[in-house]
Amino acid sequence: VQLVESGGAWVQPGKSLRLSCAAAGFTFRDHHMYWFRQAPGKERELVAILNQSGDGTTYADSVKGRFTISRDNAKEVVYLQLNSLKPEDTAVYYCNCLNSWGQGTQVTVSS
Q1: Contact 65, 13 (CB under 8 A)
Q2: Tens-digit pLDDT profile for residues 90-103
Q3: Structural contact between residues 9 and 64, judged by C-beta atoms closer than 8 angstroms
Q4: Pairwise CA distance, residues 46 & 94, whole Å
């Protein structure tokens, strides 16, 4: 299993970002995909889950209504759209599947 995240950046509060996670080494369309994040000094937390077909989602309360998880099964990529970003969204964001992790992508929200 290989997962490679990208799209992280430094942004000001209220702005948006789209994170991507390219997957390889497994049958992508057969699995739920997950986004987690880990802020400095905190435990890694689950942010969003997406089912195989892309029509079933679960979000952490802290991001509900602001973040959207989606996938392209043809491209084997899962996305996380981050809107209305807050300083407390600052973290390294990871995608996950089959107990495997990517290297993460840093999101920093600051004025």
Answers
A1: no
A2: 999 999 999 999 99
A3: no
A4: 9
